[in-house]
């Protein structure tokens, strides 16, 4: 048994002790309905049950996963013809009949509570089917990998960790408002679905915890390295306990593992109670400070959901910085005006190779731009990316720029491998997007927005904005250039300035497209960035404009 809460085909808890026996309501005996094809399931639940029909509508297709608390199946809802996930709960074999029935009743009640949670980042519970005297939980089928699986490939950067953290926070807030505590927030229960969707699973469905605390029962359900200290002490958990677990998940996202992981369960529990972890090395600044605040031993001293959201939102937003200042090992800015990509900060060996890399990149940009699109097609190293579903447009970008798609499904990012430049394109419509206070396609409105500091007025300072009317695909469009100082560098006596160069293209009605290229505001990098903007703008082809 592992001390990290288990993976696929492994237990997900360290023990199970039921609550005190309660009166057991009479259950009608299960009368199986005929189905085909038939696969006999062994009494221990480990056989192949493919083909079985549950509740007269859910046909088991195959196993998706297996753990100490149950098996998850892929199934088809034959009534509405859709695929679903079905969780078959299990309990330890040592429990008696009355204790087992009591456990099933608690699981059924908690499943119904989880079904009341209405949030896009919470796995949807469709139904609870009683078969064999136990509740089978029918849920939406989320296609993707878990955060735990993703971390096996490597750690996340702060921006991606913050994005996932915001989604999990939204799910927990919705659950807490519905009176439901998760009690097992960990990377295994965070699913990364299609289209950058993040889903939190197992809201009280696959866990059983008695009213008594750990000091009375001698056991608990959950993964010790992600469980809050008050739960280890047997105290009654609250929303703050889930937020502690969120803090551990954020720590693990940027560092690769929980700071409390030890070689055995007692050592892990002792670390949760007494260890004071170091600030995550890969997540310093406001993000790291928030993580350390979430890991405070006193539940009352941890930040609330609003404060957590206020910190994660800026960290998850597309970076306004095209590059960052070079810092010495003690965190103080070095002299001069040198800049390096954020991924090279604090990496001395990589910094030594930066000069040659920048020179090579500059030469490549010059060579690429020497051949205009109109003179025989795309230059070498460029491609047209059809973005029909997201933007209803084609975007022309360098081949080696990495693509990511926004969580709202209406924007895309293309990132320069050296992190010097970034291309961002989105489609906006103030008439339909009422939740984000979307600005209209008005250069004056955008000018005011940037001069006031951008997002929430705190994105940057000293914004200098110029606007012009241009043509794109024969239609009137707007060119906006904003030079700014990052808010984080506002106290620097000689701050590095950066630039947004944007193109706004109005469409039908109130909808419009926005192209942005982020770059340094001065020097050779600014010149290359402006040439990059010109190429990308010329290659932006909007459909049905």
From TrEMBL:
Positions of ATP binding: 87
Keyword ATP-binding: yes
PROSITE patterns listed in its UniProt record: PROTEIN_KINASE_ATP, PROTEIN_KINASE_DOM, PROTEIN_KINASE_ST
InterPro entries attached to this UniProt entry: Kinase-like_dom_sf, Prot_kinase_dom, Protein_kinase_ATP_BS, Ser/Thr_kinase_AS
MF terms (GO), sorted A to Z: kinase activity
UniProt KW keywords: ATP-binding, Kinase, Nucleotide-binding, Serine/threonine-protein kinase, Transferase
Domain Protein kinase: 58-316
Gene3D superfamilies (UniProt xref): Phosphorylase Kinase, domain 1, Transferase(Phosphotransferase) domain 1
EC number in record: 2.7.11.1
Chain positions covered by the region annotation Disordered: 1-54
Name of this protein: non-specific serine/threonine protein kinase
Organism for this UniProt entry: Streptomyces violascens
Source taxonomy: Bacteria, Bacillati, Actinomycetota, Actinomycetes, Kitasatosporales
């Amino acid at each position: 048994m592992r001390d990290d809460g288990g993976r696929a085909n492994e237990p997900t808890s360290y023990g199970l002790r039921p609550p005190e026996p309660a009166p057991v309501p009479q259950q009608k005996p299960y009368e199986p309905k005929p189905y085909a094809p038939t696969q006999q399931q062994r009494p221990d639940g480990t056989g192949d049950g493919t083909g079985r029909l549950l509740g007269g509508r859910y046909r088991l297709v195959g196993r998706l996963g297996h753990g100490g608390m149950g098996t998850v199946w892929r199934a088809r809802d034959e009534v509405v013809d859709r695929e679903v996930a079905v969780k078959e709960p299990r309990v330890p074999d040592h429990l008696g009949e009355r204790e087992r029935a009591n456990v099933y009743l608690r699981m059924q009640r908690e499943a119904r509570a989880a079904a009341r949670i209405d949030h896009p980042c919470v796995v949807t519970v469709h139904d609870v089917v009683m078969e064999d005297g136990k509740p089978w939980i029918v849920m939406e089928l989320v296609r993707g990998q878990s955060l735990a699986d993703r971390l096996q490939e490597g750690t996340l950067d702060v921006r991606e960790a913050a994005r996932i953290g915001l989604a999990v926070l939204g799910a927990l807030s919705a659950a807490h408002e519905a009176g439901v505590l998760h009690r097992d927030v960990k990377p295994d229960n965070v699913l990364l679905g299609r289209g950058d969707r993040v889903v939190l699973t197992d809201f009280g469905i696959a866990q059983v915890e008695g009213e008594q605390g750990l000091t009375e029962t001698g056991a608990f359900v959950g993964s010790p390295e992600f469980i809050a200290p008050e739960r280890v002490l047997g105290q009654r958990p609250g929303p703050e306990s889930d937020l502690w677990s969120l803090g551990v998940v954020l720590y693990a996202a940027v560092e690769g593992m929980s700071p409390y992981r030890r070689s055995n369960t007692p050592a892990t529990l002792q670390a949760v109670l007494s260890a004071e972890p170091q600030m995550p090395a890969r997540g310093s600044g406001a993000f790291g400070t928030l993580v350390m605040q979430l890991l405070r031993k006193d539940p009352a001293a941890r930040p609330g959901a609003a404060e957590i959201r206020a910190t994660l939102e800026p960290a998850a937003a597309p970076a306004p910085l095209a590059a960052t200042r070079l810092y010495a090992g003690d965190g103080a800015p070095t002299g001069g005006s040198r800049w390096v990509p954020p991924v090279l900060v604090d990496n001395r060996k990589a910094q030594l190779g930066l000069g040659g890399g920048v020179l090579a990149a500059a030469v490549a940009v010059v060579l690429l731009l020497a051949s205009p699109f109109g003179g025989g097609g795309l230059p070498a190293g460029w491609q047209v990316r059809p973005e029909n579903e997201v933007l209803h447009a084609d975007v022309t970008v360098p081949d080696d720029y990495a693509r990511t798609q926004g969580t709202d499904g209406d924007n895309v990012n293309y990132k320069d491998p050296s992190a010097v430049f970034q291309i961002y394109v989105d489609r906006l419509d103030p008439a339909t997007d009422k939740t984000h206070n979307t600005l209209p396609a008005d250069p004056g409105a955008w000018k005011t927005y940037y001069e006031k500091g951008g997002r929430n007025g705190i994105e940057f300072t000293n914004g200098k904005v110029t606007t012009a009317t241009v043509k794109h695909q024969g239609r009137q469009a707007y060119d906006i250039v904003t030079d700014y100082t990052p808010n984080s560098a506002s106290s620097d006596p000689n701050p590095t300035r950066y630039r947004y160069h944007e193109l706004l293209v109005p469409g039908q009605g109130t909808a419009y497209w926005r192209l942005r290229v982020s770059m340094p505001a001065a020097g050779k990098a600014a010149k290359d960035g402006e040439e990059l903007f010109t190429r990308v703008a010329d290659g932006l082809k909007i459909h049905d404009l």
